[in-house]
Amino acid sequence: MTLRLAILASTNATDSQAIIDAISEGRLNAEIACFVVNRECGAIERAKRHNIEVILIPSKGKEREEYDRLVDKELKKRGVDLILAIGYMRYFSPWFVNEWRNRIMNIHPSLLPAFAGGMDKNVHKAVLDHGCKVSGCTLHFVDEGEDTGPIIMQRCVPIDEDETVDSLKEKVQRAEQEILLKAIDLYAQGKIKVEGRKVKLLI
Questions:
Q1: Continuous segment of H or E residues that includes residue 77
Q2: Has 108 been annotated as catalytic?
Q3: Which pLDDT score is estimated for 119?
Q4: How many domains does the chain fold into?
Q5: What pLDDT does 137 receive?
Q6: CA quadruple 175, 142, 56, 82: dihedral positive or negative?
Q7: CA 10 – CA 42 distance, rounded (Å)
Q8: What are the pLDDT digits (tens) for 100-150?
Q9: What does the DSSP 8-state code read for residue 20?
Q10: Contact indicator for 104, 93 with CB cutoff of 8 Å
């Protein structure tokens, strides 16, 4: 059975390209049912280039749960199995988290719990300003907190002496794409089990 994915995005959703490519090349037994975006962004063009449905639901002026219920309706209509939050600049309502418990994966550009709560280049800048020697990324299931859900996978990347925010972002994104593909594949095979705060990978 093919896993049906939904990608939620507010930015370019750069990491989603690796998923699109892996599916088209037959390396991943999944299909992207739709992109859901809350504003005009680069993810729309990316989806259109690959003939993937885009659902634009503007979030401005809507309460969090009100918005999430609109998203939920569209996802269920399309038989989505797993949600991927990639460059999605919104936090989910407790109602939505409960409705999709352990079926929302979020990719975060740091080694959580360090540098939680930030987004995109702000995280990389904070890492560099702190003088860290390594950084990386974390894929986790979403819970009611900010980047606090059960950790599925992490990947480290080294930080060079002359590292910049942009060069670190590029390194971390490559790592993000690797663990996203691995985790989606494991999930499709039923090889990810959540026990409290711990995630067991049956590999």
A1: helix 64-77
A2: yes
A3: 85
A4: 2
A5: 98
A6: positive
A7: 8
A8: 999 999 999 999 999 999 888 999 999 999 999 999 999 999 999 999 999
A9: H
A10: no
What is the domain range of residue 18? 1-100
pTM: 0.95
| Cβ-contact 29, 5 below 8 angstroms | no
What is residue 203's predicted lDDT score, i.e. its pLDDT?
84
Pair 79, 103: CB distance under 8 Å? no
- Which pLDDT belongs to residue 176? 97
Same structural domain for residues 79 and 120? no
We report the CATH number of the domain holding residue 49 as 3.40.50.170
Residues in the chain with pLDDT values less than 50: none
Q: Are 161 and 152 in contact (CB under 8 A)?
A: no
Together in a domain, 63 and 157: no
**Among 108, 124, 130, 140, the one annotated catalytic:** 108
Listed residues 53, 78, 100: the one ending a domain: 100
